[in-house]
């Protein structure tokens, strides 16, 4: 049964009912995993950032499928670089959809066979079609559905229509917005434009990943009414020039305290009071709150900037390891992992199975935007939110429905990076 | 050079070094270039393209003079840091080496103190870098101390995420590279020379300037090479301590590589290489560090 | 020089003490913060004092691969250190003479320091990828050309066997001790070489002549005369080599294959770990390093003491 590691107790109480009663036997029966326990266990080298690499997921995967997951932890930048430079150094990679336009032409990733992915029809429509409940959502930028399919297994071009070859199978996705310190700002914030409000001089920060930072800047520019974009995720040279000009002006005026590049930096900047307003990730806001510091993941009227990441397979993967990779992906979509990620504030790829693995009150809090009936515990059993709180930004439909643009790789990427460097040098 | 060894000896002695550099430095450099013509970053294979990269590295540089373009500005800022850090580490390194050689009497004590200077480097760099925030930040130790002592009433912002912070952390990391070679050169100085200078009525400063500095020149040159090369290519300290807001030549290259634009990054790397090699070469006109081997 | 302790001594001692304080600033901060209370964050103020985060670390930092990474780093560091010392000594010797290409070699070493580490790392990765593609290409072409032919001979059979074994087993030449090791050496060797320059600079050849006159072979001269004299500096080179390798991030980032080194894993981890547990880890690694250096140092002292008893006066100027 489940190992009693840290938080095992609370997880068990958490999961009593649906998943655990079905139990190990149930799970194998329900989703029909061929047990590979008989052979020597296969190890999959799983390359990604630390965000999704939870030991609990690896332990559970081992228990159910018998596959050893060996995490290779690197930074966001290094994930993409390693796909380009060392495709032999991993068996499974969790990477962003936004970087696919750069990665697919290298030929180092191969299409994932949709026929081997059991729940392929259940994948969230946000990812596959860019809609929620049949309604189109904002798809400026590299929206996942634009880069979801390949023409052929070893193709280097994206297919406009669904095919049997999927680029990445979604793991997590979310909508980002500004994080603020309500205790230090002391007034409501409702627009991206506030990021460059001189009121917060020396206390604002943006993300120093050019392809994402520029999107935040675009949201700000549009909110301030300075630039009207055709497509924020695919700017023209003039649009880039204008966007960067605004940033340079703000920088020279001393608006920014720092730029952050990873989760931890963003948490530290906010928690230490170095910044009071910055673009942020939902779990980072949660991390600040866990330290007893007020921090709000502020929904804004212009909408969210969304991102998504998913599993890719290196072109060199074959034989038993390839089978194991498919088996792991199928297990990953089968609910337990999805529930685990949902509890961190991310969104899972297959919502139905994730729901089966969550308590009704948890689902109501995380996904339906309802006040928490009981204390909400994190995946490790720690207290995240007290009873009665409501998730910032509301329900899944409200949040993902308000997406304005997606992280992206532009056609003018080279020019954009050059201008970004200019901004850094200003 | 009274050696009766064969004249091939230096060749096989230098062979391992040459081999390592050939396989792991020269070839990769070459490959970086060749690959920069490949199509996987979406570029076409055209020789003209090399020119393009250098052209975009110096985009509008000559047209916009006297205003400095990005590349020139970046190099200027990098050189500024380089000079400052070099000067501070030189003075500090020389002083500490002098102290260890001439003021500490026992060898054991000397080694203990030298080791003392290396221990912080054993704490992982990554963790060390994070810890600057609680040390220098708005609510950091230094600011708390200053405010408690009544020296300031407001936290000082420029302790962190500023040119000051970058210089500080570069000095922090690189002083030891200055100390070691200077220490090595200095400890070889015959003490009787120093005594002789004193006996002839030279003041302490005169002795340092006329005897010790010339004899430590090699160490100073070697230390300077370390510091200048490391600082010129640095992007980690500049990034973290400058709050990612300060440009340096290394940082530009890093940003381009992160965006998977290898060709232009390669072009920039070569420009950087050329600039720094010129600096070093000029320096070696003054001190031939191999002359006295 | 002068009688007793001069004023200079006290002034310089103060400067040295200040420098050490500055040097240890981050280390001390880490030490203090690692004793944060359970609800404390990664910055001041302290919320109580506890061993909570050390317990937390002991229970596993949250990701199991830290220990593997630490072992990887340690192994790599030791190999790098050994090679750096040996190759540097040899090269140092070589550079005492004039030889053709010495200038080119010297400037190559300098260039290796200058070129931003990420570029070196990337280059190495791409180079190895080319090699890998070549090898797998051979495998494929062997199988294609020689499998299922009209009249197989033992030779073609062997070629097919080679081809299929490449296809089945060959993954990559990249790894910790191939590309990773090389990447680190391009970083440590220039340092080693330059320190050797400082060592052999004004190295008095009289000792060597004396040894030769007494009929020592070159190797004996090195072993019994030169080596003892330069031994302290070699410790310096070794320490340098290990420290540089131990902390190296950028060069490793694209060149270590799937075996991460400690700094890489830590850097990956810092993206999500936002508790003082990371400081606890820092404190522990520092303490361990401290213990290692202390042990090595005491070992050296013991050796020296024994030497003195045995009356070897090598190395005494």
| Mean pLDDT metric of chain B | 79
Outline of chain C? flat
What distance separates the N and C termini of chain C?
A: 18 Å
Helix content of chain C: over 70%
Name the helix and strand elements of chain C from N-terminus to C-terminus, one letter apiece: HHHHHHHHHHHH
> Assembly type of the shown chains?
heterotrimer
Largest interface, Cβ cutoff 8 Å: B-C, 104 and 105 residues
Global Rg of chain C:
26 Å
Give the tally of β-strands of chain B: 0
Structural class determined from secondary elements of chain B: mainly alpha
Mean pLDDT across the residues of chain C is 80
Taken from the alpha-carbon principal axes, the silhouette of chain B is globular
How many helices of chain C does DSSP assign? Answer: 12
Assign the structural class of chain C, choosing from mainly alpha, mainly beta, alpha/beta, alpha+beta, or little secondary structure.
Answer: mainly alpha
Portion in beta strands of chain B: under 5%
Q: Number of helical segments of chain B?
A: 13
* Helix share, percent of chain B: 55-70%
Low-confidence stretches of chain C: 312-317
**Sequence stretches where pLDDT stays below 50 over 5 or more residues of chain B:** 39-48
3D structure, described in words:
The complex is a heterotrimer of chains A (426), B (293) and C (317). The N terminus of chain A is likely disordered. In chain A, a hairpin with a 5-residue loop joins strand 18 and strand 19. Chain A is globular. In chain A, strands 1, 2, 3, 4, 11, 12, 13, 14, 15, 16, 17 and 20 form a 12-stranded mixed β-sheet that branches. A two-stranded antiparallel ribbon of chain A has the order 5-10. Chain A has a two-stranded antiparallel sheet with strand order 6-7. Chain A is α/β, with parallel strands linked by helices and 426 residues long. The relative contact order of chain A is 0.17. Chain C contains 12 helices and no strands. Helix content of chain C is 73%, strand content 0%. Chain C starts with 6 loop residues before the first helix and ends in a 7-residue tail after the last helix. Chain C is flat. Chain C is mostly helical and 317 residues long. Chains in contact: A-B, A-C, B-C. Chains B and C meet through helix 1, helix 3, helix 4, helix 5 and helix 6 of B and helix 1, helix 3, helix 4, helix 5 and helix 7 of C.
